[in-house]
Design the sequence.
């Protein structure tokens, strides 16, 4: 009887596949899969080389499911220990004396210890993932260099990634949404596929990982500082030209607010911020600005020019 699901991770088997698309486990041959080799082989040599590269990447994914399960167990066990230590009812809470309670810093220490433990587990998972990919490429004789940058970027360089269509096809067929979610769980942020060489061409692919609370706070802090520095620079420019009394510049709720009577028109605003709003330089978007508001006074809603930011 044909095996429809992977015995390792439960992923539904794709017709004619020999490896699991999710975890890379080799699947036993089904009766419908026993076909001549020439039928499965791609007709073009370039496409055959490309498929062999995918096979290497898939083979390197073996063991990821087990790694993710380990991280999940660590998370679950830590949460279970915290629930066990916590009083189970309001009566138990009331009966707990002050001298039996943990110091206020104890809970924080346990949380920090748990986070450090999970951080090391994710680090080990990423290292195992990189070693698995390297071994898979070596096994089929494809030269590739694979490493992780400090910012969570997985870099894979190989002559098999010389052309952009090859890189895009690898992303579509190997690093599918499920695989990307697994990479996010391990701590990867982006994937950089490029040709080997000093001046080689390549592409950076986002994995779509959600921001952590700390990352979101840090990004917001940096954006606010960048917006304030930009506004301060405009003020210095106005001051140097003797126009500080004629126009005030502030920032509020992601807007650059210009107060002047008469207020600037939308065409004037586009001319003033042409460089920052151009397709080559979306610096206003990077700083978190979303609109420019021109008004005659603080009581005037004014004219709003929306900034179109690339996604």
Sequence:
């Amino acid at each position: 009887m044909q095996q429809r699901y992977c015995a390792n991770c439960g992923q539904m088997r794709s017709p004619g596949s020999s490896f699991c698309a999710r975890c890379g486990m080799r699947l036993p041959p089904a009766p419908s899969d026993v076909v001549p080799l020439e039928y499965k082989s791609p007709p073009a040599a370039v496409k055959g080389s490309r498929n062999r590269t995918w096979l290497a990447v898939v083979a390197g994914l073996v063991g990821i499911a087990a790694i993710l399960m380990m991280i999940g167990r660590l998370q679950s066990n830590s949460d279970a220990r915290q629930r066990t230590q916590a009083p189970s009812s309001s009566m138990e809470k009331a009966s707990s004396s002050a001298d039996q309670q943990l110091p206020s810093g104890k809970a924080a220490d346990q949380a920090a210890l748990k986070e450090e433990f999970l951080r090391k587990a994710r680090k080990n998972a990423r290292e195992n993932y990189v070693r698995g990919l390297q071994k898979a490429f070596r096994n089929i004789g494809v030269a590739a260099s694979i490493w992780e940058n400090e910012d969570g970027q997985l870099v894979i360089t190989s002559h098999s990634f010389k052309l952009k269509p090859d890189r895009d096809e690898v992303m579509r067929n190997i690093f599918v949404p499920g695989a990307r979610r697994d990479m996010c769980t391990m701590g990867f942020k982006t994937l950089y596929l490029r040709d080997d060489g000093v001046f080689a061409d390549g592409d950076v692919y986002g994995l779509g990982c959600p921001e952590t609370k700390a990352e979101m706070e840090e990004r917001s802090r940096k954006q606010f500082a960048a917006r304030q520095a930009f506004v301060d620079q405009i003020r210095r420019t106005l001051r140097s030209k003797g126009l500080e009394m004629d126009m005030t510049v502030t920032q509020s709720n992601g807007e650059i607010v210009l107060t002047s009577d008469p207020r600037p028109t939308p065409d004037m605003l586009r001319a003033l911020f042409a460089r920052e709003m151009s397709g080559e330089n979306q610096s206003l978007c990077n700083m978190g600005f979303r609109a420019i508001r021109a008004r005659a006074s603080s009581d005037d809603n004014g004219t709003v020019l929306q900034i179109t930011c690339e996604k």
